[in-house]
Amino acid sequence: MKKLLLAFLVLVIMQPVNAQKIYQRDSSGCAFNAKQLIAPATLMTAGLSIHFAAHDSWDASVQRFFAQNGKGNEVVPFDDWLQYAPVVMDLGLGLLGAKAENPFLDRLIEGTLAYASLGIINGSAKYLFHTLRPNGNDYRSFPSGHTAFVFTGAELVRLEYGWGWGLAAYGMAGTVAYMRLYRNWHWLSDVIMAAGVGILCADIGRWLLDPTRNLLGLNKVRWNLSVAPTIDPLSGTLCTQFALNF
After folding, report:
1. Which of 193, 163, 207 is nearest to 40 (CA)?
2. Which of 24, 171, 189, 241 has minimal CB crowding within 10 Å?
3. So where are the chain's domains?
4. Which tens digit of pLDDT belongs to each residue from 201-225?
């Protein structure tokens, strides 16, 4: 009896996940909008200004503060894996019933484009600026790769699910940026610049989504993937159902 009741409760709770969503894509939401450049341009300008004009004051002061008051080398490097959490949110929340702007295939394409852009832009910047890390490990400090990666994911979550989930993702992004300073891997200008680069690359992924769909001939493809956890009422075994609808 308890197993039957538990199975019934799971089915009721998971009913929104089992329901098939129909996405009505509004291509205007993927179009370039100059207002979207304000936040990344502001952050990138601030990062570049500190890097070139205030490195000995702002960057050095923040680094000294963390060196004197922190124990960065003693903490668990959780920022190394926390940077991937927004990526999982972007792709996974929609599968679990959260209302997304685009179906799974489009989110996958959008994210791929965003991170490809990030690899090109951030990788090129690290090579061109050739900045020594505050811990002296190498000359790939500016901009921060971890910070850029996590901010790309955070902005993708905001674009797809709104500020409700977006705030949680940005909280993770801010934590990673803080930890890069706390653990003495980056200067202040590194993380500020990287945050702007990350947001910009997420926007690039959104802007290139429809052109990529056109190129791949996916405009007429309408499908959705759903995931529904269930419990076998007889054995009590937890199962997962996957449904791919064309």
Report:
1. 193
2. 24
3. 33-245
4. 999 999 999 999 999 988 755 555 5
